[in-house]
Amino acid sequence: MSLRTLSIALACSALTALAVTPARAETDPAVIAHGYKAPRDAWGRPDLTGTWSPATITRLERDPKLGDRLVLTAAEAKALEGATADNNAQASKPTDQKLSVDEVDCGVKGFSGVACGYNNFWVDPGTKVMRIAGEPRSSIIVSPKDGRLPMKPEALARERAAFGNAQMGNFDGPERRPLAERCLVGFGSTSGPPMLPVLYNNHYAIAQSKDQVAIQVEMVHDLRLLRVGGPHEPASIRKWMGDSVARWQGETLVVDTVNFRPDQTFRGAGANMHVIERLTRISPTQMLYQFRVEDPDTFAEPVSGEEAWNLTKDHIYEYACHEGNYALPGILGGARRAEQQGKEMEGNRGQVKEEGER
Q1: Does residue 241 lie in a domain region?
Q2: Is a pLDDT exceeding 60 seen at residue 330?
Q3: Which residues of 279-293 are buried (b: 16+ CB within 10 A; e: fewer)?
Q4: How many domains does the chain have?
Q5: Angle formed by the axes of helices 74-91 and 3-13, nearest 10°
Q6: Considering just the CA atoms, what is the radius of gyration of the chain in Å?
Q7: How far is it, in rounded angstroms, from Cα 244 to Cα 329?
């Protein structure tokens, strides 16, 4: 193993997620804002308008090796960012034209050979460890204290029963393919709630009026319309990204979301989960995004997380998900061809995974 490869392996083992301990209170936006107050909109409320990005190499769940430690040392953060820079430099080199399709490594973690739908040029997961109040975070999850999702055994069994022992093949029709692959919602909960950074397309554009706040999600074509005030719609009405009602609480926009569709999940939590989000502008260029997910059927305790959203001058362009996209018909066409040859597609009875799922 080369010195460079060893350094990357050691750095990557030091971080995979983001988290806080119960003994330590979640971050108070007012404390880290140091008296800063956001500019006001036409109705005297904090103006969150702009395009924001939470892109980061800090992962949702913490590396178990870090235990309950939410904050990395300066040396650990520097090592992770250095390893990322080295990996990007290596992945940006021209592909060896002598390699066969099966031998190609596109430089994107989790993708190689015929699975190289894109190379390092097309992804943008971030290059820096997420810092909140100047602290380099080891995970987005701040509670539970170990920075890990507290999945109940029965929830894991439920997932295995639903997917691992599927009687219908994963390639029998479009309904069995992941939602992002079908251009319905973004993978990895990028559309939210909670809204999480993923492999690419991590921008959110916010616009607000007196009665609504709109969040345009770069990934796929998702738009969250948050009603300001009023009750939730009946539980019989299930929506993509749930039914969100917002309210202003001082400098913070608080968003309460319920009534999710059963086929849209967050790490196993689904139709009955309850998500509270808090968006607070803490400086001219940064917003603190906090979330809490409750689903007693899935998690042994509520899950809380924090992200730093940075203001950017970038623009969000049209995401024409299906235009010129031959992936879905190609996948299903390949399955029909395999059937004609008397064999099934590999993984046909296993769990369907979203793109970028780790």
Answers
A1: yes
A2: yes
A3: bbbbeeebbbbbbbb
A4: 1
A5: 130
A6: 21
A7: 34
CA–CA–CA angle 30, 31, 34 (5° rounding): 85
pTM for the full model?
0.87
Q: Which residue has the tokens 């973690």?
A: 109
* Per-residue pLDDT tens digits for 166-197: 567 888 888 888 888 888 888 899 999 999 99
Tell me which residue has tokens 């193993």. 1
Residue 114 belongs to a domain = no
Q: What is the span of the domain harbouring residue 289? A: 16-70+128-312
Instruction: Tell me if residue 87 falls in helix, strand or coil.
Output: helix
Query: In 3D, which of 16, 289, 278 has the Cα closest to residue 139?
Result: 16
Mean pLDDT of 273-278: 97
What is the rounded (10 degree) CA torsion for 94, 199, 281, 131?
Answer: -70
CA–CA distance from 127 to each of 72, 111, 207 (Å)?
A: 16, 19, 27
Under DSSP, is residue 89 helix (H, G, I), strand (E, B) or coil?
helix
**284 in any annotated domain:** yes
Classify residue 138: in a domain, yes or no: yes
The H-or-E segment that residue 188 falls in is none
Structure tokens at 96: 């060896």
